[in-house]
Write a structure and sequence with these properties.
alpha/beta, Rossmann fold, four-stranded antiparallel sheet, about 25% helix, about 30% strand
Length: about 350
């Protein structure tokens, strides 16, 4: 018997990367697939995963990495010289797949998308053409294959996020930070989420933290409509109050025990408002932003301290975390800070 993690086929590649990153894969045993499930043998228990003892002896139904299956499926359909350029990473949002394809594969993108859809069992495939654009945080995505109605429901950490990833943002790379927010002790607190979107951080806080109230500010009307829907379907509509508009105008001042600033590329311009949103006696700010790696953590912490000083408040850095790489030499970070 071997200790193993059981995951759905659609999540297998993502889980495998995480296990390898944690150094938890048991390399002396093979990965097994049975029906819709993949079993990864592990050397230690990992919090948050379904682990069980599995008999792998004599099993021959072994897991073949999806990218290997995709390459085999496309042999003879695209030039062999292009096979190695097929992306080995992708994002799942519900049953919609997001792909970044190199320009060299542009004339083969539809047939490639069909192969990814069939192997990964995704309903629709979207091409990430230009990332997330503008103040409204709108995706520059193009439908390559499948159902043109790309609205979907993404299940993560027991929370249902309904959205249309072709029209509103969902940062799947922030999953660890969303899970962390679900573990924040905030019972009875009043929280202001300055950049709520469809509820990325509002929902984990509301569902698991049981705060008194979350004022969820969002400037994109479509995102707000999904936010309301998501609050309802997750049973927290009495806790979450969506506020449509620029958070500098709609966020209630002097009300918050905790402020969420889950935005990047310009978040520091909103720090002065965050200080005003906190109660006079202070509270906690979760400050997200992007910075060049060479300037971390000093510049991120200094920006928060300077904003606190401008507001005549005291500041204590509680935690600094690099969430993920944003671009070459630049990281998305979060600073937890106590303000008095």
């Amino acid at each position: 018997m071997v200790l193993a993690i059981k995951v759905k086929k659609g999540d297998a590649e993502k889980v495998k990367r995480k296990l390898c990153k944690l150094g938890a894969m048991a390399s002396d045993h093979k990965i097994l697939v049975l029906g819709e499930w993949v079993y990864f043998p592990i050397s230690k228990k990992i919090e948050g995963f379904d682990t069980q003892d599995v008999d792998l002896c004599g099993r021959e139904n072994l897991w073949i990495p999806p990218i290997v299956q995709i390459r085999e499926k496309l042999m003879g359909k695209i030039p062999e010289s292009r096979i190695a350029e097929l992306p080995e990473k992708w994002d799942f949002i519900g049953d919609v797949l997001i792909l970044k394809l190199p320009k060299s594969l542009e004339q083969y993108e539809k047939i490639a998308a069909q192969a990814y859809s069939e192997i990964l069992e995704m309903r629709s495939v979207l091409k990430d053409s230009g990332g997330i654009i503008g103040q409204m945080r709108e995706p520059d995505f193009k439908l390559l294959f499948g159902d043109s109605n790309t609205e979907t429901t993404h299940l993560e950490n027991g929370i249902r996020y309904t959205l249309n990833p072709a029209k509103v943002m969902f940062a799947s790379g922030n999953v660890d930070e969303r899970v962390r927010m679900s573990k924040i002790m905030c019972a009875g607190e009043t929280i202001v989420d300055m950049f709520a979107g469809i509820g990325y951080f509002t929902l984990p806080l509301a569902v698991y933290g049981k705060p008194k109230r979350i004022y969820a500010c969002e400037i994109n009307p479509l995102s707000v409509s999904y936010l309301r829907r998501n609050a309802e379907q997750n049973g927290v509509s009495k806790i979450v109050e969506p506020l449509l508009g620029d958070c500098r105008e709609v966020a209630p001042e002097g009300t918050a025990d905790r402020v969420m600033m889950g935005y990047v590329c310009g978040t520091k311009d909103f720090l002065d408002k965050a200080m005003c949103v906190l109660k006079p006696e202070g509270g906690i700010i979760h400050y997200h932003e992007t910075y060049p790696n060479a300037l971390l953590p000093q510049n991120a912490e200094e920006d928060v301290k300077n904003a606190a000083a401008r507001a005549g408040r005291k500041c204590e850095i509680l935690r600094f975390t690099e969430v993920k790489s944003f671009s070459p030499g630049v990281s998305h970070i979060v600073v937890d800070v106590k303000i008095e």
